[in-house]
Design brief:
Distance between the termini: 8 Å
Oligomer: single chain
CATH architecture: 3-Layer(aba) Sandwich
Strand order of the largest sheet: 2-1-3-4-5
Order of helices and strands: EHEHEHEHEH
CATH superfamily: Flavodoxin domain
Strand content: 15-25%
Number of strands: 5
Structural class: alpha/beta
Radius of gyration: 15 Å
Shape: globular
Largest sheet: 5 strands, parallel
Length: 188
């Protein structure tokens, strides 16, 4: 299936991170790749407890909504995550989600292997590149394919909607979306 799951880690349903990811999704759809944005705004994601119960089951033992996302990821060809930068890093609940998703993948035929995707980040002033690096470790350790763009996948904005004034950031994320779609279309 030509589908990319996009996970938005912003606690604000219509904040800058969501708006930036919507731009990415528009490009994917234009390039004939289905894009589904999932908001974590109402979720309370717990950290991995290393219980090992995901081994062979295809799901996490914790019941907080993450298994529904894992099910979608198993069927998708791509996975993009977006987060606001808080205190110089990605949101903690996103990192908890990614660690659990990675653990379930490793325990179940490495279902993330060769999926296409990458991180998108938004901040008011600083911390974007450190956050991108932090998130790239998830992609690389899970044997995923990360396309580039014309710059780092980041944009600036603090108040809701300000990200739409960052022309370079928007163009960078749109190009990233084009590259994700190009690779997904090549693979399928």
């Amino acid at each position: 299936m030509k589908k990319v799951v996009i996970l938005c880690a912003s606690p604000r349903k219509n904040g800058n991170t969501m708006r930036l990811l919507e731009e990415c999704a528009k490009v994917l759809e234009r390039e004939s790749v289905e894009a589904e944005i999932i908001s974590m705004a109402d979720m309370e994601i717990k950290s991995c407890i290393a219980c090992g119960q995901c081994e062979g089951s295809g799901e996490c033992s914790q019941d907080d909504g993450l298994n529904a996302i894992i099910d979608k990821l198993m069927q998708a060809r791509g996975f993009v995550v977006g987060t606001p930068v808080y205190f110089g890093t990605a949101r903690g609940d996103l990192m908890s989600a990614l660690q659990r998703i990675g653990m379930v993948s490793k325990a179940n035929d490495n279902f993330l292997s060769r999926k296409v995707g990458g991180p998108v980040v938004v901040a008011r002033r600083a911390g974007q590149t450190a956050t991108i690096q932090e998130l790239l470790m998830f992609y690389l350790i899970n044997d995923m394919v990360v396309p580039g763009s014309t710059y780092w996948n980041m944009a600036f904005g603090r108040l809701p909607g300000e990200v739409m004034d960052d022309t370079e950031g928007l163009e960078t994320v749109r190009r990233f979306g084009e590259n994700v779609a190009w690779l997904v279309n090549l693979i399928d």
